[in-house]
Amino acid sequence: MTFDLVLLLLVVATFVVAGVVKGVIGMGMPTVSLALLTATVGLPSAMALLLAPTIITNIWQALVGGYLQTIVRRLWPFLLASVVTVWLGVAILARVDVRWLSALLGILIAFYALAGLFNLGLGALVSRGRYASPVNGTLTGLLTGMTGSSVFPGVAYLQSLGLPRDMLIQAMGVLFVVTTMALGLSMGGQRLLSVELGLLSLGAVVPAIVGMQLGQRLRRRLSETTFRRIFLSGLLAMGLYLLGRSLLG
C-alpha cells in the first residue's frame, strides 16, 4: 500500500464524514469508515486504519454514564465471547481470500441498512434462546475479526435488551472499545498491522474528532430521523457496491 498525499486526503475525508455521522446519531463511525476505505484500500488496511479512531472516540462513551459496573455484570458473557472470538476471525482473515470477506462486509452493511430503513425487527431474531448472550457474542467477535464490523449482531442484540437509552449508548461504547482493542492486538499477532498503518490510524483520530464536533453542531439543526434515513440509504448503496465489486472484480 503506497502512502502518498492522495491516501492521506482520503483518510482525512473518510474520518471527517464518519465522525459527522457519529456526532449526529451516536454511532456509525466504524461502519462508515469501513465502507468507504474498503472500496479503495482493501479490507485489511481499512480495518487497521479504523483502530485508533474507533477506540479513542468510544472510550469516553464507554466510561461515562454511570452504568459501567451494571453493564459488565449483566453482559460479561456477551462481551467475553465477543473479545475471544475476534482472534479466530482474524485468523480466518489472514488465510482466506479477502475478496470473499469484502463481499461478506458488503452483505452485513447492506443488511444492517435495510433493517434500519424498513424496521425489520432484528431484536426479536437475535435475542431468542437461553444462550442468546454467548451466541451473539461469538458471532459478533467472529464477524469483527473477519470484517472489522461489530454492528451485527452486536448492536442489534444490545438494542433487543430494552436497556435505558443512556445505558444502551454506554453499552455500545463498551462493545466497540473491547472488540476493537482485541482486533488491533490480534491483527498485530497475525502481522496484518504495520507501523505505517498504525501511525496513520493514530493520525486519523484528529479528523474523526473534528467530524464529531461538526456532527454534534449539525444535530441541533437537522432532524435525526431524516439524517438517519440518509445515512442508512448511503450505507445500503456502499454495501451493494462492495458486494458487487467483490463478486465481479
From TrEMBL:
Q: Which residues form a coiled coil?
A: none
Which coarse location class applies to the principal site listed for this UniProt protein?
A: membrane
Where in or outside the cell is it found? Answer: Cell membrane
Bilayer-crossing residues are 45-68, 75-94, 100-126, 138-161, 167-185, 192-210, 230-248
CC per GO annotation: plasma membrane
- Membrane topology value: Multi-pass membrane protein
Question: Keywords of this protein's UniProt record, alphabetized?
Answer: Cell membrane, Membrane, Transmembrane, Transmembrane helix, Transport
The protein's matches in InterPro entries, at most eight in alphabetical order, are given as: TM_pro_TauE-like, TSUP
Q: Name one Pfam family in it.
A: TauE
For this chain, the family text in UniProt reads:
Belongs to the 4-toluene sulfonate uptake permease (TSUP) (TC 2.A.102) family.
Q: What is this protein called?
A: Probable membrane transporter protein
